[in-house]
Amino acid sequence: MEKWYVLQVRAGYEKKVVESLRKQGMQVYCPLVREVRIWSDRKKTVEVPLIKSYVFLKCTEKERNRAFAVPGVLRYLFWLGRPAVVREGEMKVLKEWVEEDKVDDVAYAKWKPGTKTVIEKGPLKGRDAVVRYIGGNKVSLVLEDLGLVVTAKLKEFV
User: Fold this and answer.
1) Burial 100-122 (b: 16+ CB within 10 A, else e)
2) TM spans, by residue (predicted)?
């Protein structure tokens, strides 16, 4: 049975990997968004990967290793010791968002308890904090210089 797997590729190799895998007859998807790049003498709209360094590959478990024959492929993304699988419905939603131009930007956060950060918005903007707890859409921060623990419910957790 074919499943969507997440492949990590070298930075800047997303389009090349997609092209090479398609030539091998594999079903692959790399969500691209349009972005305006500004140089000193001109502006240009270019298509860039929405999720940098990752592409999605639909294949069977037996076909997974064929991807490593392509230059630029690094590894599969794993979750709990097994290759991460993206559900068909999630892929459909991702494709719809990209096709309907509903995505402006993607922010990544690899926060975990103990991570030091600086608050970017709100009344505590500019303050140093340490992540104490993350769960659902809530994050608890320790503001050491104020002696406070702040728990925030976020509309969008990034």
Assistant:
1) eeeeeeeeeeeeeeeeeeebeee
2) none
Q: How many domains does the structure of the chain reveal?
A: 2
Pairing of strands 82-83, 85-86: unpaired
Beta strands 27-29 and 116-118, pairing class: unpaired
The CA distance from 151 to 77, in Å, is 31
Looking at residue 51, what DSSP letter applies? S
Residue 101 has pLDDT above 80, yes or no: no
Residue 61 DSSP SS3: coil
Same-domain pairing of 53 and 127 = no
Domain with 95 in it: what CATH number? 3.30.70.940
Task: Give ∠ CA 150-153-158 in degrees, rounded to 5.
Answer: 100
DSSP one-letter string for 107-158: ------TT-EEE--SSTTTT-EEEEEEEETTEEEEEETTTTEEEEEE-SS--
Residue 134 φ then ψ, to 5°? -135, 130
pTM value surpassing 0.85: no
130 lies in a domain? yes
81 and 149 housed in the same domain = no
